[in-house]
Amino acid sequence: MKKRFKITAQEGIHARPAALLVSSAASCRSSMELSFNGKSVSLKSILSVMTLSIPVNSTITISADGDDAAEALEKLAEVILSHGIGELCES
């Protein structure tokens, strides 16, 4: 399962939003990946997420694979939307 988001936070995904995403992903049983600019990293590793240097107006894809994949994606989407990190892209 996958969802795409446009990053709207002026600073992009820097330390604070990365920490929010990673802590949310870490509580899920599914494996989760964040993809940007042709690279995919584990969404459960803050260092991996930070290495992507995701700027404002970028499009990212978050994917989940596992028995709680749908719930995991919903949880991450809620974090992204409620903290002003980004907005959901239309499929």
TrEMBL record:
Could you name the domain of life of the organism this protein comes from?
A: Bacteria
Record's subcellular location: Cytoplasm
Q: Which InterPro entries match?
A: HPr, HPr-like, HPr-like_sf, PTS_HPr_His_P_site
Tell me which UniProt keywords the record has, alphabetically: Cytoplasm, Phosphotransferase system, Sugar transport, Transport
The UniProt entry lists the main location of this chain as cytoplasm
Fetch the Gene3D superfamilies from UniProt. HPr-like (3.30.1340.10)
Q: Which PROSITE patterns match?
A: PROKAR_LIPOPROTEIN, PTS_HPR_DOM, PTS_HPR_HIS
Domain HPr spans what residues? 1-88
Q: What does this protein do?
A: General (non sugar-specific) component of the phosphoenolpyruvate-dependent sugar phosphotransferase system (sugar PTS). This major carbohydrate active-transport system catalyzes the phosphorylation of incoming sugar substrates concomitantly with their translocation across the cell membrane. The phosphoryl group from phosphoenolpyruvate (PEP) is transferred to the phosphoryl carrier protein HPr by enzyme I. Phospho-HPr then transfers it to the PTS EIIA domain.
* NCBIfam families in alphabetical order: PTS_HPr_family
By what name is this protein known? Phosphocarrier protein HPr
Q: Which organism is it from?
A: Psychrobacillus faecigallinarum
Q: Provide the organism lineage as a comma list.
A: Bacteria, Bacillati, Bacillota, Bacilli, Bacillales
